[in-house]
Specification:
Layout: H1 7-10, H2 13-24, H3 36-41, H4 48-61, H5 66-73, H6 80-84, H7 91-103, H8 110-123, H9 126-138, H10 145-150, E1 167-171, H11 176-180, H12 183-194, E2 197-200, H13 210-214, H14 218-235, E3 242-244, H15 247-253, H16 256-259, H17 267-275, E4 277-279, H18 280-286, E5 299-302, H19 306-311, H20 317-325, E6 328-329, H21 345-348, H22 350-365, E7 371-374, H23 377-384, E8 390-393
Parallel strand pairs: 1-2, 1-3, 3-4, 5-6, 5-7, 7-8
Bound molecules: iron/sulfur cluster (SF4) (2 copies).
One iron/sulfur cluster (SF4) binds next to α4 and α6.
């Protein structure tokens, strides 16, 4: 694609990066075929090719575009388009640049601004999430249906007795997962203990920054990332890996090297952290960890989160670990499509998120599995609210 970005935009690192990404696109439109929002609305501007054009026009004019913002808001950042694209267009990065460009120049309406800021402030801190979730459960009858269903149940932390092994790994506690599904990291600690590996925690580690990043709150996201770099690097002493059990966090931590590349105080340590971060499935497969079948379920429907299959490009690994443990995986149609969770998307775009969940659950339950499993807390909670079939993190089954 030919571009004519003005010197003012090309003077910035993000402008030059956007130019390189735009030039890689040959506007073939293959990506539209796997874009969940394009499949739902049929609108070219709700597909990746249309959004790429919108960002191009906006940057060429060096002026923010409300139309571009509307269509970028409807994008899930699922990155299915990246997996499909034959030209290697880094759509996710371009969407991030486009969002930051707009957010820095056009303020949203007061309500929209408050809601977006509030979501990040609450969801990114477990104690705040627990407080507001308990409050919301008490007044559920007052909330709109989609919000009432989205209020998570808060669970107490799960203690796991593990031995003091010489091999150690850091496990990310994250934010929402810590408050809503603490049993997941407990399950990983148990599996690692059986492999003679001890889990250590990084004091001060918190939200990875992805919630703010996807909402165009770049400065806030970078504050969270720097805090995590400090915490993880300080705790890394002797640990052989940093492991994520929530693929939505893992994809961002693996990207710290790029995201903080322009920060001289953090670039090197951020790159080190990215290089040493693995999803739990990658790590357990790499060490050939002993796995046991710990659930009565026989048939399992696997939902690969977009952040795992498209963002981290980890494909086929969880499936083979589950089969190795003794489960039978049922076929699931359109496994490449997003379930509609996508961070705060299910709250900010409830109609599209609901439609995607319906479609996803129809595919996941078609073969009547005993249980649905996934690898990200957001997908797990979002799917769980729409079905009577149990939805678990796959680690709980091994
Ligand atoms: S598939 Fe890739 S090259 Fe083709 S339009 Fe989509 S982003 Fe551009
Ligand atoms: S990230 Fe997902 S929703 Fe956004 S354009 Fe790409 S495929 Fe469509």
């Amino acid at each position: 694609m030919q571009t004519q970005l003005p010197a003012t935009v090309l003077a910035t690192a993000s402008g030059r990066r956007a130019d390189a990404i735009l030039r890689a696109c040959v506007h073939c439109g293959f990506c539209n075929a796997t874009c969940p929002t394009y499949l739902l609305t049929g609108d070219e501007l709700d597909g990746p090719r249309g959004r790429i054009y919108l960002v191009k026009e906006m940057l060429e004019a060096d002026a923010p575009s409300i139309v571009a913002r509307e269509h970028l808001d409807r994008c899930l950042t699922c990155r299915a388009c990246e997996t499909t694209c034959p030209s290697g267009v880094a759509y996710g990065e371009l969407a991030e640049i486009g969002r930051n460009f707009i957010e820095a120049r056009v303020p949203r309406g007061v309500v929209d601004r408050v809601v977006r800021r509030w979501l990040v402030l609450v969801l990114s801190v477990p104690a705040r999430l627990a407080f507001f979730a308990r409050l919301a459960r008490g007044v559920k009858w007052m909330l709109p249906d989609y919000l009432a269903r989205a209020v998570p149940r808060i669970k107490p932390q799960v203690a796991v007795a593990v031995k003091n092994h010489s091999r150690r790994v850091i496990v990310l506690d994250g934010c929402a997962q810590r408050a809503t599904t603490p049993e997941v990291n407990a399950a990983l600690a148990r599996v690692l203990d059986a492999a003679d590996i001890k889990v250590v925690r990084a004091s001060g580690e918190g939200c990875c920054g992805s919630l703010a990043l996807h909402l165009g709150q770049e400065a806030r996201a970078h504050v969270a990332m720097r805090a995590n770099v400090d915490a993880l690097y300080a705790a890394a002493n002797g640990a052989e890996a940093i492991i994520s059990t929530a693929s939505g966090c893992g994809v961002t931590v693996k990207d710290y090297g790029r995201l903080l590349a322009d920060d001289p105080a953090y670039a090197e340590r951020a790159r080190w952290i990215s290089d040493h971060t693995s999803d739990a499935a990658e790590y357990l497969a790499g060490i050939n960890a002993p796995l046991t079948k710990r659930n009565a379920a026989t048939t399992v429907a696997w939902h690969p989160p977009c952040t795992l299959q498209h963002g981290q490009r980890v494909r086929g690994v969880v499936e083979s670990l589950l089969q190795r443990a003794g489960y039978q995986l049922v076929p699931v149609a359109d496994a490449h499509l997003c379930c509609g969770s996508a961070g705060t998307y299910s709250v900010l775009q409830p109609d599209l998120a609901d439609a995607l969940r319906l479609r996803k659950l129809a595919a996941l339950t078609a073969a009547q599995p005993d249980v649905i499993v996934t690898a990200n807390v957001g997908c797990q909670l979002h799917l769980r609210d729409g079905t009577d079939v149990a939805v678990r993190h796959w680690l709980e089954l091994v």
